[in-house]
Design a protein that fits this description.
A five-stranded parallel beta sheet has the order 7-6-5-8-9. 44% of the residues are buried. The protein is globular and about 55 Å long. The longest helix has 19 residues, at 29-47. It has two domains: 24-148 and 303-315, Rossmann fold; 150-297, Rossmann fold (3-Layer(aba) Sandwich), CATH 3.40.50. The chain is α/β, with parallel strands linked by helices. Helix 4 (127-134) links the parallel strand 3 (117-122) and strand 4. It is 35% helix and 14% strand. The structure holds aspartic acid. Residues 143, 149, 182-183, 236, 276-277 line the site of aspartic acid.
Length: 325
Amino acid sequence: MREKTHIPSRVPPNSLGIKSLLGTEFLEKKQIEQILKYSFLFKDLLDSGKPVPQTLSGKTVILLFFEPSTRTRSSFELAAKRLGGNTLALSKEGSSTEKGETLIDTAKTVQAMNPDLLVLRHPSAGSPFHLDQTLDLPVINAGDGFHEHPTQALLDLMTIQQFKGKIEGLKVLIVGDIAHSRVARSNIYALQKMGGEVSVCGPPTLLPPKVEQMGVEVHYGLNKAVRDKDVIMTLRIQFERLNPGQSPSRGEYSKFYGISESVLKAAKSDVLIMHPGPVNRGVEISPDVADGSRSVILNQVGNGVIVRMAVLHLLTGGELPKGLV
Ligand code: ASP
């Protein structure tokens, strides 16, 4: 009888010292700093038009997206390609998931084709952890239900660092549906590790129970909450994760929690306005604020590609030419 095909370990050692990126909860400050250092390094190369080292050349990144995505999926794809890598994107629609195949079986099937890294977005919290334990590959969590979205938080940190020059000591307010937002959770962990002071504001039904145990200041009204903040991060209500009747009406929500020019009269003049997208204009943020001079929403999108380049580079054990680092 012939031996079963041996699948070699595809996990090279890397300077981050982790196999997978599952959440910012599991990152140490020095690992976040390293990802940011590489992100700014890649940004400088791109901004100056210098060639980017093709450290993913000959490597394949699988993008397994079981929930809708515009920014995250396309930026992972662009990031891999800018580093010379190949990508293969699979979604729920049109894949064998529709025929009843489990996530683990799909992932093992994909692994048998010898990729170098797998990026997963899935509606079930914890699914990237299962894949990490099952597969001989680095796994990046690109959003697991309402749990974590680590690369979003990293790109948010990069954007804050870019515009404010630091993260330590800054006061950051996260507004909206904190309870169902993986972006909020990943940002709270990451910002606190980097010395930021995080506050949250939202209707009580959209704040997680015992949210203050996360070390955040809690507000129920925007007027006082915005006053001394350096950054305001506003979130979309995660309607797809709410039961009918659990969400406020869009009009009511916008009246009390929408970030508008009139709300910002009480804020610092240089407050940074952020949103992970997709934006529901006129609900959580008014169009004039979203497009205004304090908004860095599109910078977040651009930095998303760069942070994902850094993460892909580091997790696949890439090395930059001497002199660059
Ligand atoms: N794009 C972010 C996420 O995937 C935020 C959102 O969808 O509201 O979590």
